[in-house]
Design goal:
The structure is a homodimer of 253-residue chains. Chain A is of the alpha+beta class. Chain A is 22% helix and 30% strand.
Chain lengths: 253, 253
């Protein structure tokens, strides 16, 4: 029995998120099916970031255990022959049998893309959230910096039965905004942290957008964090603007 | 009767090109339908660039004549309420009654995007052509420069019954390649000219890609142009990597 780790990129538009749900197309479901087609095994895929419906990824992590004789490194090419075109495995390797991608210390990087223009641009709209009114970018940048540090992010989290009793303290190493060099109406909010709560980046992004529209000030962000109450923060920005960029493990895999 | 000019951006993935074809989804067909829903008129839409199936645009030009009382400038907002989300009208205005977007002197800018990486990246694959083998970018840049100037582009044109007897001399003001600032595996070929023949940018792009793969040299491009024979040039690169960026009219509209 070997544990294989894969790095998988996908366009989340057509999927009901990472996690398998009966009767719905999901990333985990497609990966499970592809492994079955290759090896005949019904494996349990453990995902690194359980991205929501419509959220994209440039390299999510997943592991599964297999008895197959396929060389671990060959799983990327092999799985790609069985996966739909909007899910691509970038690399595969063997990891320790107890390696669990969500329990290992890691840094995750997410980006949220906003298209700030009078009209939507169809070639961007699949991967960005369109905001018509002119955003105050410097207010957004200043507000984003308030997320940095070690905080209880209860105000930036949708509580579910699974997460109600969870520790909600996370460290944000970096949070900032950047305009695209080529297309000035594309604004990206990039955030790097040791973990993210349910909907956390989308609530951060929605709150920053409302800051850019003048509804909140950077100081409000600090008050929201201190208040530990979801009702203090802004709306949850739409899934399609969110992309998981990278997961970096701090110890060797 | 007024002639209204609109600037329209679209994701061409789901369309059989700009030009109306019976029973098939086209940009012209959707625009005609939207004008009919607004005004009750069955107008003839004249397109500026008759982009192929799968080709995108950031701002194609179209004109139509209308007796409606809608203010010309209001057609953008009004049409957007009737169009599918992957077609967006950016602006509208009245132009002279004899204004014809393909007969007026103009400069057109196209971009062809190549994703040069071992595996495809799903969030880019809708708008780029994936090339796995490492491309020699400096050879491509040097080759692109050979397109500049006033030449007979017979070698870079698919001949059809409509275009067989057409003059095939065009002026290319600028042709060059650029890497994306953010995503180094995205390479863009940008070309600006006074007009383009059928499939011309896609054949240029395909030939440049083959140059990047070492099959052609920059000098071969010059020989291809001089030879005036389609069989001398490279393959026609896939439609999805091509985007019409802009049309600039040289006299006032």
């Amino acid at each position: 029995m070997k544990r294989v780790m894969i790095k998988v990129a996908y366009d989340g538009t057509g999927y009901h998120g990472f996690q398998a749900q009966r009767g719905l197309a999901t990333i985990q479901g497609e990966l499970t099916r592809a492994v079955f087609l290759l090896t005949g095994e019904e494996v349990d895929i453990i995902g690194g970031s359980r991205t929501d419906a419509g959220v994209h990824s440039m390299g999510n992590i997943a592991v599964f255990d297999t008895d197959s004789r396929i060389e671990p490194a060959n799983f990327s090419k092999a799985l790609n022959t069985k996966l739909p075109g909007d899910i691509v495995v970038w690399c595969a390797k063997e990891v320790a049998g107890d390696f669990h991608p969500r329990r290992r210390a890691s840094r995750k990087i997410y980006e949220y893309t906003v298209l700030n223009s009078e009209y939507d641009i169809p070639v961007y709209s699949r991967y960005s959230h369109h905001v018509r009114r002119k955003l105050d970018i410097s207010a957004m940048e200043e507000a984003a910096k308030r997320f940095e540090g070690r905080h209880d992010f209860t105000s930036f989290c949708t509580l579910t039965n699974d997460t109600r009793d969870m520790d909600r303290v996370r460290t944000i190493f970096h949070a900032g905004t950047a305009m695209d060099e080529r297309e000035e109406s594309l604004l990206r909010f990039r955030v790097e942290g040791d973990g993210f709560l349910y909907n956390m980046v989308r609530i951060m992004a929605g709150t920053l957008i409302e800051t850019g529209l003048g509804r909140f000030t950077p100081d409000d962000i600090t008050r929201m964090i201190e208040g530990k109450d979801r009702r203090l923060a802004g709306h949850t920005a739409p899934a399609k603007g969110l992309c998981h960029m990278e997961t970096i493990f701090l110890e060797s895999e």
